[in-house]
Amino acid sequence: MDHKTKGVMLGLAGVILWFMPLVDFGFMGMNLYQSGSDIGGIGYLLLASSTGYAALSWFQEHQLRVVSAGIATAIGLILLVEFGSKAAWGLYLLIVVSGASCICGYTDEQKRKKSRQQAEGTGGR
Predict the structure, then answer these.
(1) Which residue ranges make up each domain of the chain?
(2) pTM for the predicted model, two decimal places
C-alpha cells in the first residue's frame, strides 16, 4: 500500500475515533460517555493533529507527520493517565492508531532518506 494511502487512512481513523467514547462515567446507574468534543480544548488539539497527519501524509512531509502523530499519542497518554479506569475503548484505540501513525511516518522518512542516498550515490558515477 502506498504511504499516502496508509497515512490518510491512519489520520482518518484518528478523526473517526475522536467521535467515539473516550471516557465512561457512571452516574446514578447510567453509563455516560464523553467523546473528544466533550473533553474540551485538548480534544480539539487531538482532532487537529489527526487531521494534520492525514494532510501531511498526502504532501509527503514525513518529519511533520511524526511530530503530529507524536502529539496525538502524547495527548492520548495524558488523557489515559488522567482518566485511569474510566477510560473507554475509543481512547485505547486512539492511542494504538496514533502510535502506529508515528511508526509509519518514521519508517516512510527512513525509506525516503535511503532512496535519496542511493540516488545520490549512483548519480555521481
Answers:
(1) 3-123
(2) 0.85
